[in-house]
Amino acid sequence: MLDVREESGVVILTFTKERLDASVAGDFKEKFNSQMRDQEQKYVLDLSRVSFIDSTGLGAIVACLKAVTGNGTLVLAGVHGAAQDLFKLTRLNSVFRMFDSVDEALA
Amino acid sequence: MPERELLMEIASRVENAALVGLAADRIGRFFGMSERTANAWQLIVVEAVNNVIEHSFSYETQHRVRVRLRLADEHMVCEIRDRGKPIPKQVLCKLKSDVSGLPAAEDLAESGYGLQLIATLADRFDYQSQAGTNTLRIEIRIAARDESTR
């Protein structure tokens, strides 16, 4: 569900399923939290493979942001289509830093 | 029975919301919905099923949920029926028909979006509870919607 790699000191977490919904949101939060470091850290959550997010999935992403805040930063990469519409509708695009791709997030 | 409808029955598991959502999306496109409207329709239907599973059955998985998708003139209609606990009136009363009902972004709310997303995106949203059966009925226009609202 979550592929993790490190590049240039940044932790990149790629969500590998097409849907981030109520059936996986809990597991996703747990796996994200298990990757958190003790020291200040930048994280990129790559959502480029995700075609659908429901409100529970959205809440899980918000929980990740709150978990990181104070001990690092979390940015989103590759949010597109229906998922992007959901961020715009809920205006959460104004609180997340969002990039078109992981490469842009790392630049 | 109307000529163009699909009846589905699922177990009350959130994993099954995707099945119904994908069916709604594909049927919406079949009847001429744009990609963006079909995406919104899928989200509405998934949120509706999730809410029934949450409110009516408190996530118990052994119950049945009936979903009816049908074409009605220029609209797609989805009716979701269950025999669980009704959604509390105080929850329904708070819903608004536009984005003003959604949690403020700066509050970083982790919940409280679902039913309000339905109320915001659907053209019509009714909920009735009678004789032990709850019916959530949602409706969306097939024709492309005002993109400025998205």
Topology readout:
The complex is a heterodimer of chains A (107) and B (150).
Chain A: E1 2-7, E2 10-15, E3 19-20, H1 25-34, E4 41-46, E5 52-53, H2 55-68, E6 72-77, H3 81-89, E7 97-99, H4 102-106
Parallel strand pairs in A: 2-4, 3-5, 4-6, 6-7
Antiparallel strand pairs in A: 1-2
Helix pairs in contact in A: 1-2
Chain B: E1 5-11, H1 17-30, H2 35-56, E2 64-72, E3 75-82, H3 89-93, H4 114-121, E4 124-130, E5 133-141
Antiparallel strand pairs in B: 1-2, 2-3, 3-5, 4-5
Helix pairs in contact in B: 1-2, 2-4
Tell me briefly what this model is.
By secondary structure, chain A is α/β, with parallel strands linked by helices. Chain A is 36% helix and 29% strand.
User: Briefly, what CATH class of chain A?
Assistant: Alpha Beta
How many helices of chain A? The count is 4
Tell me roughly what share of residues is in helical segments of chain B.
25-40%
Question: Approximately what portion of the residues of chain A adopt beta-strand conformation?
Answer: 25-35%
Identify the biggest protein-protein contact and residues per side: A-B, 26 and 31 residues
- Give the uncertain stretches of chain B in residue-range form: none
Basic shape of chain B: globular
Output the CATH homologous superfamily of chain B.
Histidine kinase-like ATPase, C-terminal domain
- Identify the CATH homologous superfamily of chain A: STAS domain
Classify the secondary structure makeup of chain A into a structural class.
alpha/beta
Please, what is the oligomeric state? heterodimer
Sheet with most strands of chain A:
5 strands, mixed
Largest sheet of chain B: 5 strands, antiparallel
